[in-house]
Predict the 3D structure of the following.
Amino acid sequence: MIEIVPSGTHIDFIGHRRIAFAISGVLLLAGLAAIFFQGLRLGIDFAGGTEVAVRFDAGTKVDEGVLRSLAGACSILDPTVVRYGETDAPEFLIRFNRTAEVPAGGDDCPLTDEQRESLAAVDQATGANSASSKTPSIVDRLTMAMRNQIGALDILSVEYVGPRVGDELRRDGLSALGIAIVLILIYIAFRFSSRFAPGAVIALIHDVLITAGVFAIFRLEFDLSVLAALLAILGYSLNDTIIVYDRIRENMSLRTKYDLEDVMNRSVNQTLSRTLLTSLTTLAAVICLLLVGGEVIFPFALAMAIGIVVGTYSSIFIASPAVLYLERRFGDGAGSAATKKRSAA
Amino acid sequence: MSGLGWRLSGALACVGLFAFLTIANFVPQEKRLESPLLPDGGLRLGLDLQGGIHWVLGVDLEAAIDQELGFMAENLREVAEEKAFTVSGTRVEDGALVVETDGGADAEHVASWAKDAGLRSVGSDGGVLRYELTAAATKAVKQRGMAQVLEVLRRRIADPIQGIPDSVVTGQGEDRILVQIPGGQIDRTRARKLLEVTGHLEFKIVRDSAPSEELLRAKYPDGLPAGTGIATERDKETDRVLTAYLLPDQADITGEYLKDARVGFDRQQRPIVDFQFNTEGGRIFSKLTSENIGAQLAIVLDQRVYSAPSIRSRIASRGQIEGRFTAQEAADLAVVLRSGSLPIPVQIEEERTVGPALGADSIARGLRASALGLVVILVFVVGYYRMSGGYASLALLANLVLLMGVMSMFDATLTLPGIAGIVLTVGMAVDANVIIFERIREELRAGKSPRAAIATGFNKAFWTIMDANITTLITALVLFEYGTGPIKGFAVTLSIGVVTSVFAALVFTRLMFEVYPGTRSVPSLSI
């Protein structure tokens, strides 16, 4: 029998809770500071804007600078151009949020008159007049210009999120997080008595904030799929916490006299192997996704991976001590160091 | 057959059925429709996997309100003429109709008209009266506007000659339309020409013209005559203004009366669009042309003058639009004219277009990640739990079959985040088994017999597994409610996966333990 945690292991997790609290505190503060002062680097889902991914034919001579100046010539303001992919067919991601008014005499965009005319006709026919409504046609201008000046290319993807949609996605995303937290709180309170619910929610918020904080600190792009990952973490990181709480409850009902700190320590140790194993298997799957899933799914997999690690840590080091702390601070004294006779059970 | 035998065959039949549903997806659609055995529907690939155009069009319903108020204003003028009262001016601003009168009896007439028309007064200042549509009328106008736009777009997509097969146009919320065009059938520029353009064709008799807008304006130092505006004809090659025309705001006849529009060719074999009016349109058109012989008739499409030929004789019901069209452009324009103009402008508010190359790439990568994840986990579980791990592996595979089968049954859409959800499910499905097995190990260590340990393990783990998965299900459902497009696909696979994995662990794994060791009293358990 292989065991990752030898039976009879007894580590004083609860006794070292101050160290855990300190580590979490630092992580949380750093994350929150990064979120507030530096801000999350919002992807176009939330910030609005346009993102075009193109792949040129193999061997095409082109670099970021060329594309940036070409985009500039086509009345695109502050384009971000990133090269990605490892093949010899160069792939680029061009992103922008604002476009300039095309001057009356036309800009320097390398288009044929026929192309200009055709695009202008569509613009007029669609009633596009504001700068934001012109964005969809800017993509056509840009791809035509790239084909004219640089060479054949495939459009891999075009994403455009208008200002109204961006605002909505941001608002809906935040409310989805809020609603999920409230629903889980209700479920926990319903299943576990109000003693445990606050501890679980502290652990949850801890996990989500630290994961978001890591994205803020490292300036990783925060898009819709990362938000989806945060929600999944919300549900998943609770799994391990529930395993521990279930065991605490079970151990409490085994005897009439107990010391809460001791019961918690025993419970965390008893469930340690399954806490680690369940996380490891899920983490293994997510890491596969991270390594071979490709660029599109990378941010999601990264957020999931961070969330699983933080969630496992918090189930062991934070969830139970948080309950203990709350009990000692606000509780009826059941958690005090002195043993107490339990009326129920 | 014993009770166990029945349950075992039930489980196998269940897996078999879902395996059948899963495998049926690989049979081409046409063959499935022909075969009486195979299901017609099945798993669909999201646009992010098969490639395609995904648009959310915003419908400018405020414009519909303004249009409605404009009609009301026209009606007011007619009524005023009929009942002989004076309205000095009407205008529509900020969703309200403003009527200017000299006050007194005129204002009273207007007020009584408004009452009959069901308008809501939102203030009056002397002779200036402001009206808005009632909430009910606003809602009705908006709904009608949406319905009209949807219908026009559907006609354009379903056009038998130039339509886009398999595309979907659906209303979303109160003022949005979701357009999904699968595959790389058409490029987005063409799609915009087909769907986004208003297609408002007007015929107007030219009042005056000049080589440029400035020169034309210079002819009217006191401002343009009431009820007219300037439209320009541009050179097809240089986009330079050729002629500026002074045209009436009100069209003499519009594309509304068209019966048909087709691609034709002029004498130089350049593509043109031939159109034909219906009977009523033909009557109006021949009257218009016979009364204006010698004048120029401007053909205006979406505010742009395409040509302004001189009327030489009465024209009955046919005409043509010349432009420097390519054959494709002419064909697309014909579709737009055939299916009618959009009564309200639409605008792309969100776009997620994926080229076929990236879609195929995503499928390949998603499959690779799933396969790798599956192998890693199977190896780990069998290595760690031996025979029991083998049970867990079988349950995991059965879980995947159930997941795919349920998705096929509901004709669910598989997206890239959906594949991520499946990989995640593979990782999480083992959790339930780990919880059970660890508990069984614990009971064995406490000195219980394998049989007793298995029973206790399953019983004690039950609620822990339920609790752990219900919270995940809650978040998955919230995500389903709030997510859009691909993200919704993640919520779908995650929620179905959570349910099937609990089922697989609690039913299938347990059943395998009942087969062996079952009721036998074995000295030890490979776990």
